[in-house]
């Protein structure tokens, strides 16, 4: 973004702070919407505060960030809730998460980054995955090299919540779909791009583009909305169909499922909902397999699980608090399980559920589909 474009967006913010509230109708409950502002409790951690910091930097009023200022810039999950809310009440679109990413990119160029994020970049350089894992999963899909469908697993489902990858592969097998996974799948680069480390992501993107082209696949399926959004928004167009698992399943159609005896709530992952506008397909798939109850904050106004934008690695206390808030909202809806469609959400919500002993299960949609498929 050009400097003038950024400043124009910043000056369009009137600091009304309505982007921090999910509902402000007088007869409804006023629920918080911005997790970082709510957790840290003062202006620098809300969207307008971050914009003000950006303005001060651009206009030369701030030259050296203190530790607290670095925290306010990086302790934002880039969930986009502020952007959606602001869009509803102003006639100007202030593209807040993009501005915050731009700000982080500028910070990294000046050397103002967090050690923990630099370490992730080093791990990726060394091992090609965000967790620095050296082990490799062997998926039977290798033998189907050349199949039209390619499943891009992503670092989190590969190394932290493999039950999601297992469930997706189980679904392909039960539906008789031939699929492949990349022998050399590298991190998609999302964590680097979201933390301002744009240059380091380029090599990963080039590798993945080449590997996918060579695979001959026509359709790439993702269980990770972060990977999907990165391919949609940051990679060049490869002329392939890129789909989330829930889009793939709704388009596939002929699933014979047995509905599970479970009351669940659906948690919209930020990248899937607000960033990609995929709200209907996850709900359609989930309603096939379980009894779905509604939570108070959903769709554009969903409360973030707390783990995106590099927050989980740098500010785990904040990430788990945000997830705990979501679990309590699910409990209020009277459900026994909270279901998402993102490995990041599942990991963080699950950790919070174990820590806080909320007595609520956490699943990814594909796990329930795999369980209910005849
Ligand atoms: S970003 Fe939008 S909603 Fe938030 S304070 Fe600025 S003008 Fe108000
Ligand atoms: S992107 Fe999310 S966490 Fe960041 S300022 Fe906006 S609402 Fe708050």
Task: Explain what you see.
The protein is of the alpha/beta class and 374 residues long. It has three domains: 3-113, no CATH class; 140-251, Rossmann fold (3-Layer(aba) Sandwich), CATH 3.40.50.1860; 257-372, 3-Layer(aba) Sandwich (Rossmann fold), CATH 3.40.50.1860. 51% of the residues lie in helices and 8% in strands. It contains 19 helices and eight strands. The protein has helices at residues 3-12, 35-40, 47-58, 67-74, 81-89, 96-109, 115-127, 155-159, 162-175, 190-194, 198-215, 225-233, 245-252, 271-275, 280-289, 311-314, 316-332, 343-356, 365-372; strands spanning 149-152, 179-180, 219-222, 241-244, 263-266, 291-293, 337-340, 361-364. Strands 2-1-3-4 form a four-stranded parallel β-sheet. Helix 18 (343-356) links the parallel strand 7 and strand 8 (361-364). Helix 13 packs across helix 15 and helix 17 (316-332) packs across helix 18. The longest helix has 18 residues, at 198-215. The protein is globular. Bound molecules: iron/sulfur cluster (SF4) (2 copies).
Helix and strand pattern: HHHHHHHEHHEHHEHEHEHHEHHEHEH
Bound molecules: iron/sulfur cluster
Low-confidence stretches: none
Question: What is the strand arrangement across the widest sheet?
Answer: 2-1-3-4
CATH top level label of the largest domain = Alpha Beta
Q: Give a short account of the largest sheet.
A: 4 strands, parallel
Beta fraction of the residues? 5-15%
Specify the structural class.
alpha/beta
Number of helical segments with 4 or more residues: 19
* CATH fold-type name of the largest domain: Rossmann fold
Q: Please tally the β strands and state the result.
A: 8
Total tally of structural domains: 3
Would you identify the CATH architecture of the largest domain? 3-Layer(aba) Sandwich
Could you tell me the radius of gyration in angstroms?
A: 20 Å
Tell me, rounded to a whole number, the average pLDDT.
Answer: 94
Give the termini separation.
50 Å
Cα shape:
globular
| Helix proportion range | 40-55%
């Amino acid at each position: 973004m050009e400097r003038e474009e950024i400043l124009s967006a910043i000056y369009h913010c009137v600091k009304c702070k309505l982007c921090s509230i999910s509902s402000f109708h007088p007869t409804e409950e006023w629920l918080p919407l911005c997790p970082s502002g709510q957790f840290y409790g003062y202006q620098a951690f809300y969207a307008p505060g971050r914009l003000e910091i950006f303005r001060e930097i651009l206009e030369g009023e701030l030259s050296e960030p203190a530790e607290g200022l670095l925290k306010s810039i990086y302790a934002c999950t880039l969930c986009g809730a502020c952007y959606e809310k602001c869009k509803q009440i102003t006639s100007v679109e202030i593209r807040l998460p993009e501005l915050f990413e731009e700000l982080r990119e500028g910070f990294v160029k000046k050397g103002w980054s967090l050690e923990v994020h630099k370490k992730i970049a080093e791990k990726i350089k060394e091992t090609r995955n965000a967790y620095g894992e050296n082990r490799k999963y062997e998926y039977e899909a290798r033998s189907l090299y050349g199949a039209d469908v390619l499943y891009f697993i992503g670092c989190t489902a590969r190394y932290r919540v493999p039950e999601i990858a297992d469930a997706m592969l189980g679904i392909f097998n039960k539906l008789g779909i031939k699929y492949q996974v990349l022998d050399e799948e590298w991190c998609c680069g999302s964590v680097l791009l979201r933390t301002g480390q744009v240059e380091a992501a380029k090599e990963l993107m080039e590798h993945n583009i080449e590997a996918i082209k060579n695979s001959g696949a026509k359709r790439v399926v993702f269980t990770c909305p972060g990977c999907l959004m990165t391919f949609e928004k940051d990679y060049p167009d490869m002329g392939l169909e890129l789909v989330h698992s829930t889009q793939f399943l709704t388009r596939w159609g002929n699933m014979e499922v047995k509905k599970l005896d479970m009351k669940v709530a659906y948690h919209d992952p930020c990248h899937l909902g607000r960033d990609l506008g995929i709200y209907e397909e996850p709900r359609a798939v989930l309603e096939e397999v379980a009894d779905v109850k509604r939570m108070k904050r959903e769709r554009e106004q969903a409360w973030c699980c707390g783990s995106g934008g590099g927050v989980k690695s740098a500010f785990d206390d904040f990430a788990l608090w945000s997830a705990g808030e979501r679990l309590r909202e699910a409990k209020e809806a009277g459900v026994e399980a909270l279901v998402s469609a993102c490995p990041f959400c599942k990991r963080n919500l699950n950790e919070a559920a174990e820590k806080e002993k909320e007595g609520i299960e956490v699943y990814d949609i594909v796990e329930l589909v795999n369980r209910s498929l005849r």
